Amino acid sequence: MRHGGEPEQTSHQRLVPLVGGRNFRDLGGYESTDGRKVRWQCLFRSGTLAGLTAADQQLLARLGVRTVCDLRTTSERNSEPSSWKPDAGQVMTWDYELDAGAVMGAFRVGIPTPERVRAAITEFYLTAPEDFADRLTAIFELLAAGETPLVMHCTAGKDRTGVATAVVLRALGVSQQTVVDDYALSDTLVDFHTLVGGESFQRSGSWAFLSALPPDIRAPLVASEPTYLEAMLGSVDRHYGSFEAYLASRLGVTEAAIAHIRNLYLDR
What we know:
Protein-Tyrosine Phosphatase, Chain A; alpha/beta
């Protein structure tokens, strides 16, 4: 494991200031149940890295980012290629397309309502621990191998990234409430309503679809409502008996692996 260098700011801060990026956040400082805290400048979450400026890229280089886990679909990566990758690291990608069945089902029959859209998004979160299990397993393998500092990101940096971040933080022993609070920060730090409605998002793909929706229908889609993540975590506990059982039986992350990862990424 290689720790990143200290950026220009004199103290650690949650949001990393990127001009051409959004929602790039350090997961350091969160307390585990054993009193230790997640190390700063080891684990990051973010939205797309496609628009990074030269200064942004220099900042990430100073942070020492070694591994990028790009959770976007194949078509998303092809339509909006990332503008940066680590000089001496790796970029992990997975070839897949989102089914979006539950979400799009809210628009196929009848007139969509905010309630139906919200229920559809909740269904996405309920199935995500199974749907993204291969990616989550790969992330834990990277963490166990010390391939950090590591960034997990998708397009907005809130849904797929939110799922992956929640699973990693829970494995590190961070409380569910803290994990949910971190998830909800996306709503505080990024005005997705303005972004999606802006001219730069009037294009093909999911953003164009979102920008064409009435604001009240679009709102549940672009929100990071705590109930979404709470539903996911609650479902994992019900189906597997505990979060640790999910890690072991579905992702192959054993108790020994969890202890090893905690020793790598938790500080007193």
